[in-house]
Every structure is written in C-alpha cells, then in structure tokens.
C-alpha cells in the first residue's frame, strides 16, 4: 500500500442537489441527495476550477490534475474554457496525457491553446475514436476508458488507479450537485440510463470527480439517485401525456412548471429526450415530430 496524503476540500457550489439542470431549481422538486460529498481528495488529485460559473456550469468547469507520487508529469482531465490563466496553470503541471470527457465548449474550448502551452501532452478525445475498456498507462497511473453515452453521444468516464486507490472522472454524466441534461438529439435517454446502470455496478465507495460541482464519495449511490430521478421524471411525462398534453411545450410546463429562463432550453432538450424514449419504447406520444415545438 502506498502511503498517500489526503487533501481536505469543502463542498463547493450553492445549487441544491434535489432537482436541477446543472444550476438553479427546475420544476417539481424530487427530494434526495445524489451522495455524500467527498471531504478528502486523494493526495494525488488536485482540482483546478475554471472561472466560468453559470447556470449550466455551477461553480465552473472542474479541470482535474492527477499526479502519482514521485512523478514529475501528470494527467489532466478536461482543460476547460479558453481562459489563458487557467490553461497556463494546468500547463505548468507538465501534463503527459490529457483526457477529454466530452466535446462541449466548457470542457474543450481551450484545448487548442492548451496544446500550444503543453506541447508534450498526448490527448485522448472520445469523439475521435474512443475504445471502451482500453487501458492507458502513463505518469504512474492506470486509466481505463469507460464509454458512458447519454448526456452526449461521446460522453466518456475514466477509471483511474494510483497504487491501491481508485477514482472515476465522470464529466457531465454525473455532476457534483443536481442532475444533468440529456442533450437531445445528440444525447439519448435510453443510452443514459444504461450508462447509469453501468456506473452503479462499479460498486460502492468509488469516489467521483465530476465535471462540475464537488467531488462525491460514492459512484454507485450517485448513479442510483440519478436512475431514480430519471424514472420519476418519466412518470411525470407519462402523467402529462395521459392528462392530454399534445406538444412539447405543454409537457415542459407540466413537468418543469417553475423552470428558470436561463435553463429552460436545457429542460426542453431533456423533455424531448424523454418523449423520444417513450415514443420508441411505448409508442407514446402519438403527436408532433420532436423537432418542432
């Protein structure tokens, strides 16, 4: 067993975990907690939070630096937005490998500039040929690629081992607070539920390093919470349809009645993903094409 120091962190972010789309409250609150925040990061893990807080990014994008004891180089996960100071700070850590969880701008907008600042880094970008189950070994770390489509088609998690310690980097598949949007039509609810099943089956007490919000203590508990949340939302959509909803806007209003304007587009994408899921599996709803309001 490698003796690794641990770093105490606080649970950041003011967003409530009961029910939200990566930000303020959205609609009928579904009570519960994703899991307990992780109080102590492993000593080989550091968080560099990008200065891009907002309704869809919580307190900002989490860029993670993973460095095995005794190694000069490291692994960076998600360089984040094109903020020069943030990218320079990451580059100064001497990354040997950069992992991308998915291709949304808040995670990869700064990638090209980051390559210039850290020319020695190798980049693994799932949209350019992810290999599920592939194992990468670098900088004293072992990284297993875990394909988790749903939030987006290319969403990918990374299981990282350092000695006898293991963490999982989840990007936006599992957030540190609240729930994530299914970015229909690129995102797919059926795929997302299958990905959550897979994460739940990884076992208890696996720390989660998410793309936004605080680190979490238990991947299985977080995935189970997300699954329950999605099933409850589907029941709400079924009820709206049974009560006579005949278009996306009406379903949105009934399922997310108090949605904040700045996250309404995200809520609508998730509703469309829910309707597509019910259409494909239950031949419901029998109304409008999903590409229209």
From TrEMBL:
Highest taxon of source: Bacteria
Organism: Actinocatenispora comari
Gene3D superfamilies (alphabetical): Ribonuclease Z/Hydroxyacylglutathione hydrolase-like, Winged helix-like DNA-binding domain superfamily/Winged helix DNA-binding domain
InterPro entries linked to this entry: Metallo-B-lactamas (IPR001279), RibonucZ/Hydroxyglut_hydro (IPR036866), Sec-metab_biosynth-thioest (IPR050662), WH-like_DNA-bd_sf (IPR036388)
Start and end residues of each Metallo-beta-lactamase domain: 60-212
Name this protein carries in UniProt: MBL fold metallo-hydrolase
